[in-house]
Amino acid sequence: MKFLSSSTVYEIQMQELQGYHLKRYDRAWRFDLLKVASALRHGSAERSLFVIFMSLLAFSLSASPDEHAGTSSQPEQLTRSIPTREAQDLTGSQFAQYVSKMNSKEREEAILEEVSKGNLPEFLRKLVPVKLQCELENGQSLTATIFVTPDYLAIGSDSDFLRIPMNLHTAVTVAERFGFILPTRKMVDAIYLQSRYHLTPQPLPAGPEMRSTEYYSTHNHMIEDQEHAVGVPLGALVSGDKKDVVMSNRLTMNLGRIAIYGWHRGPGQPIQPLSTVHGANYADYSHGIRLISEWALVNGKLQSIRQLLQNPSTAKILSDEGPIRLDWTVLAAVQDGPAIAAPIN
User: How far apart are the C-alpha atoms of 74 and 263, rounded to whole Å?
Assistant: First the structure.
């Protein structure tokens, strides 16, 4: 097999399309080369291989219903870019002890290091499908299936893990490395409605301690106790345990801020309305990071969520704010002022 140079690949894709998507021609297929070009230009062989793998996955997903039989494990393939957890990696309780004396900046660096190397529970790699629907202006019905982590990101093993809040910089870096995005407000609502288990929010007293590792651990134990009482199995889609760090157009108007939303008491009853009051460096015990694969099935075809959100004609299926065009590299890099420990509403 002859491999093209990165510059040649880039020139080819630029001549074809400004974007990437999947196409089929009489059961044949091709994968637009933008992602491959970008990965090659940045010297990321692992990323390039993952994108090539995604083209193969797309072909199988675009097959007929008969051919699609036996593909229930395919959502798990979307986590292939997450490194394997090693047996010697820290458990959740060990990590909590490890960072207990660190300041917030040091703790964020430790969080990024552990998560980036794959130190997260196995059950979080088994994505759960969530469906969203909308009607376009032409009357056409559009259905999208997104693939989400069953709970919020955590550090540790299946038997000992700590759900770990992150500031915007850490959350975006993790999502980008693994081929994921943060949810929109509409996605968060859909996830809540389709969750198998709805936990009751358990706020802790407001104050500076909200950002402490002790609060992180205490709240995690409270969630565990509630899950054990209800009988929640690992891997079941769960919501109500934390607020979500989300993507929102408000971030473009509030640089250096983090957007949070959710922590539902019931359908349409979030404790936290969409807010950008806190700086991008802010994180407290009530925040959770739920990852959404950057690929979605739209009317049976695998498409890029980023492209869907940027397109005015398709954004409404995933967003109630209209098209969302965020440069996460810029947003995550902007430093904020002093964080505000505001009371929970």
Answer: 29
- The answer on 96 and 45 residing in a single domain is no
Give how many domains the chain has, as a whole number: 2
Q: Are 343 and 207 in contact (CB under 8 A)?
A: no
CA dihedral 105, 106, 110, 113 (to 10 degrees): 70
Q: Which two tokens stand for residue 191?
A: 């996830």
Pairing of β 128-135 and β 28-31 = unpaired
In three-state form (DSSP H/G/I as H, E/B as E, the rest C), the secondary structure along 304-340 is: EHHHHHHCCCCHHHCCCCCCCCCCHHHHHHCCCCCCC
Q: Helices (DSSP H) in the chain: which residue ranges?
A: 6-16, 34-41, 45-61, 65-68, 74-77, 92-99, 104-116, 168-178, 185-194, 213-230, 250-253, 305-310, 328-333
Q: Are residues 180 and 93 in the same domain?
A: yes
Half-sphere exposure of 126 (CA within 13 A, CB side): 11
Q: Is the pTM of this model over 0.90?
A: no
Q: Of 71, 89, 116, which residue is a domain's last?
A: 71
> pLDDT, tens digit, for every residue of 216-227?
999 999 999 999
The helix/strand/coil state of 302 is strand
Q: Which of 16, 344, 333 is nearest to 205 (CA)?
A: 344
Question: Are 27 and 93 members of one domain?
Answer: no
Question: Where among 53, 71, 89 does a domain terminate?
Answer: 71
Look-up of token digits 């640089």: 255
Distance CA(200)–CA(197), nearest Å, equals 10
pLDDT digits (tens, 9 = 90+) for 84-134: 999 999 999 999 999 999 999 999 999 999 999 999 999 999 999 999 998
- CB–CB of 192/198 below 8 Å? yes
